[in-house]
Amino acid sequence: MHAARQLNSHQQQQQQQQQQQQQQQQQQQQQQQQQQQQQQQQQQQQQKQQRPMQEEEYDLYEDIEPAILPQQQQQQQQQQQKQQQQQRRDHTAAAANGAIPAAAAAAAATAATAAAAAATAAAPPPLHLQQQQQQQQQQQQQQQQQMMMMMMALLLLEGRRV
């Protein structure tokens, strides 16, 4: 009889322990669900924050773009003027050396001016390797300046966000 009671109370203790474990598991599951909900909410908030930022970046680029374009055009014009001057110098030097008559030098200089004027609408044709290298260097400088402008814009955006 005593042994039966002990066995009975032992079974009850085991049942209580099992119930407690089940309750703990349920609590853990609830906590996990809450954490998942919090993570989902955080993700939703991040997505909401990202959308207006993308729009702001686009707006800012629209603001900056008009400032970049005239600068590019101005740089192209300066580049063409330099080419014209160089061509005139080359022809003048050649004429002075008697390689070509002065009239031909003047005609060539006029042709160079016309070619440079046509180049304002389209990219100038490669005349010499030296000029090609100059153009490449200037294009690289322009690209670097554009990158700097974009970096500045992004830094400004970061500053606004804080």
Helical proportion, percent range: over 70%
User: What portion of the residues fall into strands of 2 or more residues?
Assistant: under 5%
Mean pLDDT: 72
Structural class: mainly alpha
- Show unreliable segments: none
Reported for the largest beta sheet, the result is: none
Anisotropy-based shape? rod-shaped
Number of strands: 0
Q: Calculate Rg over CA atoms.
A: 39 Å
SSE topology string: HHH
Distance between the termini: 76 Å
Region (Disordered): 1-142
Biased composition (Acidic residues): 55-65
Biased composition (Low complexity): 11-50, 71-86, 93-142
Biased composition (Polar residues): 1-10
Q: Can you give me a brief rundown of this structure?
A:
By secondary structure, this protein is mainly alpha-helical.
Structure characterization notes:
The chain has three helices and no strands. The protein starts with a helix and ends with a helix. Helix 1 runs antiparallel to helix 3. Helices cover 90% and strands 0% of the residues. With 162 residues, it is mostly helical.
Descriptive terms for the model:
162 residues; mainly alpha; 3 helices; rod-shaped
